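Notes from the 1:1 (GR / supervisor)

We went over the backlog. Supervisor wanted to see one worked example end to end before approving the batch request, so GR pasted a single chain during the call. The sequence is below; no edits were made to it. Supervisor asked that the structure be written out right there so they could see what the output format looks like.
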Amino acid sequence: RSADGNHFNAISNTASNKNYLFEQNDQFPFAGDNFYRIKTLNSKGHTLFSNIVKTEGASEKAVISIYPNPIQGRKLQLHFTNKPAGTYLFELIDKAGQVISKENIEVSNNKSKNTIPLNSAIAAGVYQVKISGNAGEISVQQVIIR
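Structure output shown during the call:
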């Protein structure tokens, strides 16, 4: 397997069989394009390579995760995966639709972790966390505060 089509690493070694039929699943493909080739040894010990095949891998899904849930200890973690860098608005909303807490969050790369402290006056209960980005995308998730 290769990410660039030039530098390859083995993902499997398989002994020869009489059918000359082989199958291998890549358990850990690269995000984006992957290049594959088969390296064989013929009966004389010479190394042969197959043609290179390019597959277009699915990029990782953009996700905002909240940990822990239920929230204990008056802080929560926001994990941003494959979200564009920029400023996001965090809002904690109660059942009545009132914004109880809000904070700007800076995301600097595609895997970012942010800690949000929560005011000790916030009552235990079920809330909505709303995250808004510059591009207008919105994520709303339910959290429980204990």
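Supervisor's comment: The chain has two domains: 1-59, 63-145.
Batch request approved.
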